[in-house]
Automatic annotation (TrEMBL):
Keywords: NAD, Oxidoreductase, Plasmid
GN (gene name): serA
Similarity field: Belongs to the D-isomer specific 2-hydroxyacid dehydrogenase family.
Ubl conjugation keyword on record: no
Protein name per the record: 2-hydroxyacid dehydrogenase
Amino acid sequence: MTHSHGIRVAVLDDYQGVAAGLADWAGLGPDVAVEFFHEPVPAAEAAARLAPYDVLCLMRERMPLDAGLAAALPALKLVVFTGGRNPSVDTAALQARGVTVCNTRNGEGGIATAELTVALMLACARALPREFANMAQGRWQETLGEGLEGRTLGLVGLGRIGARVAAVGRALGMRVTAWSPNLTPERAEAGGAALATRDALFAESDVISLHMVMAPSTRGIVGPTEIARMRPGAILVNTSRGPLIDEAALVAALAQGRIRAGLDVFDREPLPADHPLRSLPNAVLTPHLGYVTDGTFRMFYEDTVEAIAAWRRGTPVRVATA
């Protein structure tokens, strides 16, 4: 049991059970008690379960921390979230309560997400999950895959990650186009793509990949109209945020066998065990792995420990802006 003057730290959503070994938590001192949570804390239980802690360490957006929850945590003095920005944390509300909020560096997250995007694209094109399962079950060839050379890759968003995916698409011999609300022909060309209209991108692409930030204006940016416009058999890849796609429209199109999808992100995370997406053979699903690499997590947790130590010295580092 910690003494009353000790500091209690909760490291949340350590799904893989790796946080303890990736940074020197003991270096924070004997009066700092660190506890690691390997399961998500349900929203209904969050106020009660997190009330004893002085410090909360959040993994990206796995655990929302809004003004209501902040008000229910009177002991809270420091929040450290991993990554550079976190829209699911109400930084302004926390700072108004006198809670310090710090972030970490981004690690290889952008690069790793671009790599996973390509992996999902190829897994869909070559029916890899089904053939992996066939081999594990003693069977042999069952599917006809398709090559991507000469096909069109349409990118919705051409920031840092989108531009990396564009480069790989070109390396595969694909024709690369891009659209986003403010994209100019010059910026598209600089990012390695040709500017397309939104309608043309959805109608003409063989593979469509989303690389947009989540905002009120981008929620449902791929809706029933865009999905209906897609070519039969086209592949939709999302490694950005689940709510960019109208999930009901996507599930309907997949259930009809009209399109295929490679998805790393979902409206609800963790994705419920009985979710219809899990049972659709033309959906290739990964559990939000985009940024999940050893190198990124090592940096996340080392930066988190550094932030706690700096805060204790009265000189906090990487203080988040509201």
